[in-house]
């Protein structure tokens, strides 16, 4: 993928199968966001191709990618805090009742159906779907966005740093929801800076460095330290912590 004279992605071969979680790791500026935008139809690749079921596809825009089952959830979940949980869940696909021109959203059905779906998908703390989404925690909002994608039949779910702003329990909730998506046969691309989160859920891993896939491996093939080092942040982090020990002096 080039922008003018700047090549942001090259040598990126990357595949995701149904029912697996592929973690895309990489430091800031490695090209993760650009890759997501290519996969989700925001950018058309200047060379190379995106294939679904082995057939090359060209998306005119994100709506076309969504129509082919590619759902993208960004860091803050894409939920509207001042809308109720059920409206967020259905977002334009609400069941309606009545006959035109008296058609209206069937609020009882949206509330009941979204609550049932969220509970089946593991969001058990939600008891009233008419509550504002803003009353949910950050992790619950992420989980809601993932649950919605699974419910509406996403085949590929792209998660852009869904756990990076969350505490441990909240991150665990999101990781569980990623597991639910996988169990439902959805292919997941999980973008993260957090090697621990990646290793908790990933089946395969790809490390992106300066726009190229520098390493690709399966679960269990590398230790956490090796992964951290690969993520280019690893060596720097070690140097940084060693530097800090020096700064504290002995004892
Ligand atoms: N539209 C563009 N035009 C020119 N350069 C771009 C464009 N978009 C991104 N880049 C450059 O490409 C590189 C990769 O950017 P990208 O946002 O994909 O990285 P990233 O891995 O997602 O980083 P981060 O974790 O910080 O979001 C950066 O050096 C960025 O400046």
TrEMBL record:
<dbReference type="GO" id="GO:0005524">
    <property type="term" value="F:ATP binding"/>
</dbReference>
<dbReference type="InterPro" id="IPR017871">
    <property type="entry name" value="ABC_transporter-like_CS"/>
</dbReference>
<keyword id="KW-0067">ATP-binding</keyword>
<dbReference type="InterPro" id="IPR003439">
    <property type="entry name" value="ABC_transporter-like_ATP-bd"/>
</dbReference>
<keyword id="KW-0547">Nucleotide-binding</keyword>
<dbReference type="InterPro" id="IPR027417">
    <property type="entry name" value="P-loop_NTPase"/>
</dbReference>
<feature type="domain" description="ABC transporter">
    <location>
        <begin position="1"/>
        <end position="235"/>
    </location>
</feature>
<dbReference type="InterPro" id="IPR050107">
    <property type="entry name" value="ABC_carbohydrate_import_ATPase"/>
</dbReference>
<protein>
    <submittedName>
        <fullName>Sugar ABC transporter ATP-binding protein</fullName>
    </submittedName>
</protein>
<dbReference type="InterPro" id="IPR003593">
    <property type="entry name" value="AAA+_ATPase"/>
</dbReference>
<dbReference type="Pfam" id="PF00005">
    <property type="entry name" value="ABC_tran"/>
</dbReference>
């Amino acid at each position: 993928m080039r922008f003018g004279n700047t090549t942001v992605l090259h040598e990126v071969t990357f595949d995701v199968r149904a029912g697996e979680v592929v973690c895309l790791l990489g430091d800031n500026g490695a090209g993760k966001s650009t890759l997501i935008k290519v996969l989700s139809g925001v950018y058309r690749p200047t060379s190379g191709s995106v294939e679904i079921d082995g057939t090359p596809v060209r998306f005119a825009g994100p709506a076309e990618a969504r129509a082919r089952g590619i759902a993208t959830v960004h860091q803050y979940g894409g939920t509207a805090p001042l809308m109720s949980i059920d409206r967020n869940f259905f977002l334009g696909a609400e069941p309606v009742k009545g006959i035109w021109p008296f058609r209206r959203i069937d609020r009882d059905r949206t509330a009941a159906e979204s609550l049932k779906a969220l509970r089946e998908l593991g969001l058990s703390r939600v008891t009233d779907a008419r509550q504002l989404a803003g009353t949910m925690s950050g992790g619950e909002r992420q989980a809601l966005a993932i649950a919605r994608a699974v419910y509406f039949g996403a085949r590929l779910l792209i998660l852009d740093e869904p756990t990076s702003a969350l505490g441990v329990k909240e991150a665990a909730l999101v990781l569980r929801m990623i597991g639910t998506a996988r169990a439902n046969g959805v292919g997941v691309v999980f973008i993260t800076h957090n090697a621990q989160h990646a290793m908790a859920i990933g089946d395969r891993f790809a490390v992106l460095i300066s726009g190229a896939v520098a390493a690709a491996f399966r679960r269990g093939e590398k230790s956490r330290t090796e992964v951290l080092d690969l993520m280019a942040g690893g060596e720097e982090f070690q140097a940084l912590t060693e530097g800090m020990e020096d700064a504290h002096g002995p004892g």
